[in-house]
Amino acid sequence: MMAIIGMFFQDGLTGSAWGDWANYTASPLRAFENELGVQAPVGFWDPAGFTADGSTENFARRRQTELKHGRISMLATMGYITPEITGKFPGYLSPSAGLKFADVPNGLAAISKVPAAGWGQILAYMAFCEVSQDQSAGTPAAAGDFGFKVLTASDPEAKKTKLAAELANGRLAMMAIIGMFFQDGLTGSAWGDWANYTASPLRAFENELGVQAPVGFWDPAGFTADGSTENFARRRQTELKHGRISMLATMGYITPEITGKFPGYLSPSAGLKFADVPNGLAAISKVPAAGWGQILAYMAFCEVSQDQSAGTPAAAGDFGFKVLTASDPEAKKTKLAAELANGRLAMMAIIGMFFQDGLTGSAWGDWANYTASPLRAFENELGVQAPVGFWDPAGFTADGSTENFARRRQTELKHGRISMLATMGYITPEITGKIPGYLSPSAGLKFADVPNGLAAISKVPAAGWGQILAYMAFCEVSQDQSAGTPAAAGDFGFKVLTAADPEAKKTKLAAELANGRLAMMAIIGMFFQDGLTGSAWGDWANYTASPLRAAREM
Predict the structure, then answer these.
(1) What pTM did the predictor assign?
(2) String of DSSP letters for 133-151
(3) What are phi and psi of 459, to 5 degrees?
(4) d(CA 51, CA 54)
(5) Most CB contacts within 10 A, which of 87, 248, 466, 516?
(6) pLDDT, tens digit, 9 for 90 and up, residues 188-228
(7) Highest taxon of the source (predicted)?
(8) What is the pLDDT of residues 347-384, one digit of tens each?
(9) Rounded distance, CA 553 to CA 492, Å?
(10) What is the CB-side half-sphere exposure of residue 376 using CA atoms within 13 A?
């Protein structure tokens, strides 16, 4: 009511309910609308009116404070989270006091445990950060640039992007750490303890179908806040029906696009072939009345052919079709849980298809119409593979710069090749064994004495590392890798990996990219597993409860 009155007034006064921002040239907000931290869709947002005076000095002072608070909050937030995930440092925090890192609790409880000398070091570091730079107005440090080029960059645009991201992350961290402090002070833990919430109405539903990791029981709208099992069962019955209809509707959009339509006539009397009926919403006006009658009759049959009153199998979604469910209770539970998840996805999918179809006439849109998309520049590049196509969720190529794309591709190739070598370096010795003889005769070190994985780092002699680094340097400097050269595109003249035939070379290089991407994921997983357990493979003897035990021992 307030909104519409305001719109009427604004529209009657200016001819538009939105006004025209271009007319507000004297607004003090104009001074700050292009500053870092102004992000879509909100734009420049200052509901408290701190910038209403238009003072750039005050804005810069507040921005400097915001950056510091954000950075401290990010460190504090990670300080809560990291020990929970990775554990604490080994050894002693204070040998003289016999205090181990493991003895210091996480969160607010640590305040009283850290020795005075520890707090002194923390405060000394904070003071160093404050006084080691000139932070007076107009200096780089006043704008948050302390010369750490890992966090910022020499390139002005890259630095702007990173600082904008830092501001956004800092704002999020400020909210997060306050929430953690509040929760920690209230319950003794930043995470709370679900076991303490015995009276929560959510307890009634936490073991229901559809409760899935990592979210668990999720009801942001509070439909189950009353704890009523009857209401929950009724909504679950409705959710199942909507999900099933949506799955059928979604497949009804997709299937004709992939398999084509039925041969022959939908309505011989009307001379209407299946092929004459368009896909999607346009089919509504083409299907004869008798066709809609059959659809409605089948829906009515599904509704009345079963007793769906509360407590019946049909009310829980079991209509006796054992292809969809199962006679075995556990198998049935698994299948019905999968059906719920698929139905939820289908409800989102079909609404998106309806919207796209109603807006453009097709549920898929028409890629041919997006002629100005910057993605057009890269859709035929190596590494674009079915079924995803050109995939850049982080938007690295949104600027359409072929130079930036080529530079990133060159880096991707190198990382992929190193990762493939590293992955094979983990795997090969496990399968084929190690090379016979000595790695270092002078040190009496055999190849067999060098452990596999990360443990090898401390065993390889300095001369060995020198050879590795020398070979890496040779690969870098033995070819001209400047933009536009074959080496910049990954072709170093090794025709075993590429080929003289352009098409064969393209196929091999595309395969290399795909394998390199897989290897980058693989080697990170191996490093993590190796660092955590001492082996990239773990220790099979420890997995006594694994279901694979049964299959392996048969």
Answers:
(1) 0.41
(2) S--STTSTGGGT--S-TTT
(3) -95, -30
(4) 5
(5) 516
(6) 777 766 666 666 665 667 778 888 777 778 877 778 878 88
(7) Eukaryota
(8) 999 998 888 887 777 777 666 666 666 666 777 888 88
(9) 49
(10) 8
